[in-house]
Amino acid sequence: METSDATCLHMEEAMVLVRGTRLLAGAVVVACMVLVGPSAPSGALFGRSVPVDAVRDVVPNRVMTWNICNPCDASNVGRAAEIATYAPQVIGLQEACVRDVERIREYLKSLHGLEYHVEYGTVLQDWGRCGGAPWNPGGFGQAVLSAAPMTDTVEVEYPDGGSEDRGYMSVTTMVGGQPVRVFNTHLAQRRQEAVRADQTRVLAADVARHDRAIVLGDFNAVPGAPELAPIWALAADTDSECRPSSVGTCKPTTDWRSKFDYVFLRGIAPLRHRVQTTPYSDHDLLYTDVDPAFSEGPAQPV
């Protein structure tokens, strides 16, 4: 366990009797910031508390996608604070180590009062990325956090991952009071267009089986990339202005100012969306509020 997380976990355990008090939880975060100090890659204080206008409870019709960056020396306390600011009902994480996700869940509950279920789509057991003992390395891949229980979990590893194993996972859970099939994927790295084309065909075949679905993930491709055509044929991006033929209207989601991250909606209406920069990853947070009861309606940035 990295020093920063270990320090805060010990402080958290010492206050177990008052975990439900957000004021004290905020004090713990501040204390951690003083004790540990800055964290790479951003140099920002790792444990900043959520802003005063942050959401206080889970937003039942909000979904988020976030590539949390790995390997990156980023604090899980900070990652949890970023998620807690917007408190989505469902979060799809990519480049996620099982141990990191468990810590993020612990901090969401103990520091922010937010409880999530979790399912994993592990594609690698990787000591270099996720630590653990050489004979028992940590799991790496995707994860879905949901405020509601999840059922019918499916994990799929793509036949060809490219330079690294890749895959997708899917679950059924509640979004906006409606059962929805949620997919979470991470496609092959850049400059591997042919591999990604094969991957999207596999993913699209599964998505097509569902009348209503949300597809989250890091697709490592800009909207006009030919390999995304099978997904565009089935679903629309949450940003109504962003389409394969769009030029300059798709808001970037990465530090290198490309749009690689998507919330694709099938049979579900988008209401509003937001791309939020973060010091804890080279990918931005992307969240959207949806209306699962309707399949039409424009999305508005917030």
List the helices and strands and how they pair.
Layout: H1 3-14, H2 22-36, E1 59-67, H3 76-86, E2 88-97, H4 98-112, E3 117-125, H5 127-130, E4 132-133, E5 136-137, E6 139-146, E7 151-157, E8 167-175, E9 178-186, H6 193-207, E10 213-218, H7 229-232, E11 236-237, E12 261-266, E13 269-276, E14 285-291, E15 300-301
Parallel strand pairs: 1-2, 9-10, 13-15
Antiparallel strand pairs: 1-14, 2-6, 3-6, 4-5, 7-8, 8-9, 10-12, 11-12, 13-14
Task: Explain the overall architecture.
This protein has about 300 residues and is an alpha+beta fold. Helix content is about 25%, strand content about 30%. α1 runs antiparallel to α2 (about 20-35) and α3 (about 75-85) crosses α4 (about 100-110). Mean pLDDT is about 85; it is low at about 10-45.
